[in-house]
Amino acid sequence: MRSSLESSLRQLKCHFTWNLMKGESSLEDFEDRVLNQCEFQSSDFRATVCNILAYLEHHRGQHEAALEHLRQAEDLIQQQHADHAELRSLVTWGNYAWVYYHMGQLSEAQLYLDKVKRVCEKFSSPYRIESPEMDCEEGWARLKCGGNQNERAKVCFEKALEKQPMNPEFSSGLAIATYRLDSRPPPQDPIDSLRRAIRLNPDNQFVKVLLALKLQKMNEESEAERLVEEALEKVPRETDVLRCAARFYRYKEALDQAIDLLKEASERMPPNAYLYCRIGCCYRAKVLQTLHRGEDRRYGKRARLPELIGQAVDYLKKADEANGNLYQICSFLAGLYSLAGRFEEAEYYFQKEFSKELTPAEKQMLHLRYGSFQLYEMKCEEKAIYHFTEGMKISQGGSKQREKIRTKLEKIAQARLYNNEADSVALHLLAFLQEMKSKEAWQNDADARRRLDAGKRIPSTSLAETENEK
Amino acid sequence: MRSSLESSLRQLKCHFTWNLMKGESSLEDFEDRVLNQCEFQSSDFRATVCNILAYLEHHRGQHEAALEHLRQAEDLIQQQHADHAELRSLVTWGNYAWVYYHMGQLSEAQLYLDKVKRVCEKFSSPYRIESPEMDCEEGWARLKCGGNQNERAKVCFEKALEKQPMNPEFSSGLAIATYRLDSRPPPQDPIDSLRRAIRLNPDNQFVKVLLALKLQKMNEESEAERLVEEALEKVPRETDVLRCAARFYRYKEALDQAIDLLKEASERMPPNAYLYCRIGCCYRAKVLQTLHRGEDRRYGKRARLPELIGQAVDYLKKADEANGNLYQICSFLAGLYSLAGRFEEAEYYFQKEFSKELTPAEKQMLHLRYGSFQLYEMKCEEKAIYHFTEGMKISQGGSKQREKIRTKLEKIAQARLYNNEADSVALHLLAFLQEMKSKEAWQNDADARRRLDAGKRIPSTSLAETENEK
After folding, report:
1. Where are the domains of chain B?
2. For B23, which of A229, A299, B362, B381 is 20 to 30 Å away at the CA?
3. Closest partner residue to B13 among A134, A285, A336, by Cβ?
4. In B, residues 143-202, which contact A (CB 8 Å cutoff)?
5. What's phi and psi for A268, nearest 5 deg?
C-alpha cells in the first residue's frame, strides 16, 4: 500500500511536489526569505501564506502545527473563494495528504487523496494531460521559436525534469534554454502588466505602489508620487504597502517620511531584521546628509549628529542581533562608531565583517574602508597599505572601488617619496600598481575582443571609423 | 456542433493554443526567426520542426502544405519515439484537429480530437488537473518563496491568463512577478546544465559546442577548443554545429577557420541571409586585421586588401538582398566601398542605412561614421560637423561613441581656432559641447542617486570612506 500511495502522492500538485526549496542553501535561509524578506499583498492571500507555513512547519518536524495551518488555509479558502472552493482547495488537500503520510497516518492520507481525485474527475479536461513528454514537446516548440519564448521553454523542461530527472532529452532542452537566457536575457515590461493589473484590480494598493516604484526609476516622479499617496490614503496600515512606499520616499531622499512609514510597519509586525536594517540605513543616510550639508554651509546642523548616529547604531545593532548575515551591516556599524570617535567598537565590527563570507566586491570594499580607518583614524600607514594592497589585488571587484584604492596608494607613495626619494616601500608600491595596470589592460583587451557578438549583432567598429581614425 | 468543437479544440495542448506568436510584430519576422535565425539540433528534432512548419503554413493559408508537414511529423515520431509514439503524437494530432477545423472539415477535426482523448484517458493522472486556478495557486506559492522561484511564478500566471485573460487575480500575480524579474533578473547557470546534458547525451554535439562557447567567454580556451574539435570530428556536416563552431573560431579571431565552416554550412542549407552576413563580416574582420598589421609593420600584406574587400562586399550584398533589415549591413558596405575609394557606392549605402528604423545607439553610430566619411574622404567639414553634432545630441547612445564624437568635434574646433581665434563656428561648437557636458553630469548624478538600492543591498558608500575622503 505504501508504495502505491507514494506514487499517487507524487502526482499531486502541491507544495510538496513543487520543488520550492530548489537551490536553497538551508531551511533557515528559505524560511527567512519567505517570512521576513518577501513583501506580499498580506491581506489578500492569507490562504497561500498558511499553506507555506504548513510546509515550513513540516520541515521543522512540527506536524501538528502544520495541520493547524492547513486548517486555517481551508477556512480562509471557504471565505475568499466561496464559488471555487473545491478547485482552490486542491493544493491544501494535497498538502494534508503529504503531512499525514509523513506522520504515518496512511488512511488519513488516502482520504485526502480521494478528495483530490473526486474534484479532479469533476474538472478534468478529456483533451489535455500533464505529462513530461508533453512538457518536452512544448519546450522544443518554444525553443524553436526563440525570442521571448525561451523563458517558457525553460520552465517546460524544468517541469519535465522534476518528473524524470535523468532524462537526456529533457536535460539537453534545459541546457539550451538556459544557454540562450544567459546570452540574451528576456526584456521584462513591468509597466504594462502593472497598469493592466491596476485596471483589473482597482482596490489593490500594493500593485499601485510597485508601479510607482517603476515610474520613479523612469523619472516620472509626479505620477509616481500621486500613486503612493493614493495607496497610503486607502490602506494606511498595511505593512507591505508601507514597506514599499518607504522605499519610494527613500529613493526620493525624503528620509523622514521613509522612517515614519517603516516604523509604522514595524509596529504592526513581529520583530523583523530587514525592517530594522532599513530604518538604521535611513538614519545613516541622514547622518551622511547632515555631514555633507554641514561641510558645505558650515552652520549649526551638525549639532544633531551624535543623536542621529545613535539612532542609526541602535537600529543596525537590533538588526544585526536578529540576523547576523545582513549585507554590510557590521561595516556600517564600524563606520558609524568611527565617526563617533569610538574606535574600539569600530575595530570590533570591522573584524566581525572580515570574519563573514564575502563576495570579491564586498571584500574589496571592506579592505578599502578598513584601510581608510587605519590611515585616517588610527594613523597606522602600514596597516592601511596592507589593506589597500589586498583590495587592489581583487580583480573581480568594482572598477570604481579599485580606482579609489589606486588613488590612495599613489598618494601614500608620493608623500613618502617627497620625504625620501629612495623610499623602498614607496618604490615597491609604484611597481605593484604598474603591474596591476598592465594586467588590467590585458584583461580589458581580452574582454573587448570577446564582446564582438556573433548573433544578429555584428562588430560595431565601422570600417570608415577605423580607417579614418587619424 | 461548431461551438462545442471549438471549446474542445481550445483545450488541446498544441501549437494553436501555445500562443507562440505573442509579441511578434509580423508573421514575416516570426517566420524569419524560426526558419533562418534560431540554430537548433537539426538532426534530432525534425518532428518538432515539421509541426512548426505546419503551423506557419496554416498562417500563410496553405492548408494542404500544413497537412503534409503534419504527416511528416507523424512518420518521424513513429521512427524516433517508437516506444512513446502515442504520447509524443498528441501535439501533432492536436494540430491536425485545428487545421481541419479551419478548413471546415469538422468531422475530420472531431476524429483527431477523439484520438487525443483516447490517449489522454489512458495516461491521465487522477490526482492532477490543469486548470488556471491551480496555476494561480502555484504562482502565488512560488511568488511568496521569491528568489529563484519568480521565473516559474511568472509562467504560472501567464498560463492562467491564457485561459482567462481578464482575470484580475491572475493579472496582479503576473504584474508582481514581472516587476520582480525586472528588478532582480534571475542568474542563469548554463555551465552546470550544459555539463549535465552532455553527460546524459554523450552523442549530442550541438550542446557540446554551446558549452565550448560559454567556456570561451570564461577564458577557459583549451577545454573549449577541445570540445569544438571533438564535435566537428563527430559531425562534420551538421549545419547547426558548423554555425556555432564558426562563432567559436570567430571570437578567437581564427577567421579563416570560421569562414570555412560557415561556407560548409551554407552549402548544406537553403540560401540564408544570416549566414551570408556572417561570412561577409568575417571577411570584413580580415580586412581590418590586414589594415592594422599593414600599418604596424609596413610590409606587403596590403596587396591582398582589394581582394578581401571584394569578398566582404559580395557576401554582404547577398545578405542585404536576401533580407534588407539586417543590422548595420549597409553601413558596413558603405565603409568597405569608401575604403576601396568608391565613394558613390559608399554614399548610396550610407543613405540606405539612414532610411532605416534605427535605435538611438545605431543612429548615433551612423552619424559618427558618416561624419568621418564626410570629413576624411569627401573633405566636407560642414557636413561632418552637422552629423557629429546630431550624433552628440543622442543621449541614449553609447558612452564610448559619444566620447569619440566629442574628441572629433573638439579637434575641429581647435584647428579652426588656430587659424582664426574668433572663428564663430568653433566657438559655437565649444559652447555646444560644454552644454552637453553639464547635461550629462546632471544625468549621471540622477542615475547615481537612483542606484541606491532598497532591497537587501544597501547604499555602498561607507561612512568611514565618506568621512575620511580628504
Report:
1. 2-129, 383-421+428-447
2. B362
3. A134
4. 143-149, 151-152, 154-155, 158, 166-169, 171-172, 174-176, 178-179, 181-182, 185, 188-190, 193-194, 196-197, 200-201
5. -100, 10
